[in-house]
Amino acid sequence: MILKGLIVSSLFILFANAEESSKLPKIRRLNHIPVKKALVGDNVKLSCVLPKSGDKRRLHEYTWSKDGRVLTKGAHYKIRRFTFLKIRSVKLSDSGKYKCVIKNSHGSDSLTTEVRVYSRSSQNVKCDLRFVDQRGSQVRVDIVGNYMDLDCAVHSCKDVSVTWFFNGKMLTSAKISKARRKKLSRNGQFLELWNLLPRDNGKYTCYVSNGDATISRTYSVKAIQVLRASPFLVSPKGNSTIYVKLGQNKTVECVAYAQRNMHFQLLRIIKNDSANGTDRLEVFQKPTQFSADFAFHADKGRRNRAVVQFNNITKKDLGLYTCMAGNSFGFSSVSFYLRQDPS
């Protein structure tokens, strides 16, 4: 009984602490830039967002300070509660550390951003620009009727402008508003596609600029009808070459989409070098064949993947592989080469 009482007491304390922690204010830190650079006369916007939670935000205090001095809104400072501080037409004296503090009866959270203001004659004020997600251009596949967002969020010490194109044509604000199923969020760095339709298929390209540099990324979007369809394989790319070093470990993923349950199979084509010989097809029957482990994973929703783990690669592991995915409606396949790194 004593042990049971201790367990109940511990659980009560654990849940009480968790509930108390959930009431603490939590500032959104996604894409936070710790240092912002600007030239004299620029406008600088510093984000400090408290996510909405019903009408509970009104119970919080929201303050901005510069180098310890509390700021008030006026001609020079524009403060939007729980969202941002905007400094209009910055001067050299506006350089410093700006701190946002959000408090409630349970505690506080804070976020600090350093602002560096340079004169127009300064030479070395270039600002780097890079995507938060470094995976590059991507293929995105989902089911008709679902939601998809395209991510072009960046790290930049200056404010950025974002322009989106669909199949080579600019997506203006008017076009996006008219489409209704498309929406820009987070200063245009995310393009949201609601209730996907086949006519949404195509290439979406974002161009992001901060005045010093411009970068771009392209998404290939495919909305598929899968209620009565075979799996759609999206990875690896067909006839792609994966270079490896002998003795190395390498993971390859075969990724497919389908509404129905599917089955993966990995095949290997063994080339015969003799004059009258024929190529031989080998099917992976067990993980110990060759030096590869072959495992299946069903992710959330309709995405399924087969993971091939090559361990301590030898020359006999090199060659042409085919990944097949099938269900009751049919199958699809994609091949890839495993080759020795020439370097």
Q: CATH homologous superfamily of the largest domain, by name?
A: Immunoglobulins
Overall shape: it is elongated
Task: Name the strands of the widest sheet in spatial order.
Answer: 1-8-7-3-4
CATH class of the largest domain: Mainly Beta
Mean pLDDT comes to 79
Per CATH, which architecture of the largest domain? Answer: Sandwich
Oligomer: single chain
Low-confidence stretches: 10-21, 286-294
Task: Report the structural category.
Answer: mainly beta
Tell me the total number of β-strands.
27
Query: Cα distance, first to last residue?
Result: 68 Å
Give helix and strand order, one letter per element, not per position. HEEEEEEEEEEEEEEHEEEEEEEEEEEEE
- Please give the largest β-sheet: 5 strands, mixed
When the domains are counted, the total is 3
Radius of gyration (CA) equals 27 Å
Strand content: over 45%
* Helical segment count: 2
Descriptive notes:
By secondary structure, the chain is mostly beta strands. It has three domains: 23-118, Immunoglobulins (Immunoglobulin-like); 129-224, Immunoglobulin-like (Sandwich), CATH 2.60.40.10; 232-340, Immunoglobulin-like. Helices cover 8% and strands 47% of the residues. It contains two helices and 27 strands. A five-stranded mixed beta sheet has the order 1-8-7-3-4, with no helix packed on it. A five-stranded mixed beta sheet has the order 10-18-17-13-14, with no helix packed on it. The protein has a five-stranded mixed beta sheet with strand order 20-27-26-22-23, with no helix packed on it. The protein is elongated.
Q: How is the secondary structure organized here?
A:
Blueprint: H1 2-22, E1 35-39, E2 44-47, E3 61-66, E4 69-70, E5 77-80, E6 84-87, E7 96-104, E8 107-118, E9 129-131, E10 138-143, E11 148-151, E12 154-156, E13 161-166, E14 169-170, H2 173-179, E15 182-185, E16 190-193, E17 202-209, E18 214-224, E19 232-235, E20 240-244, E21 250-257, E22 263-270, E23 280-283, E24 292-298, E25 303-310, E26 319-327, E27 330-340
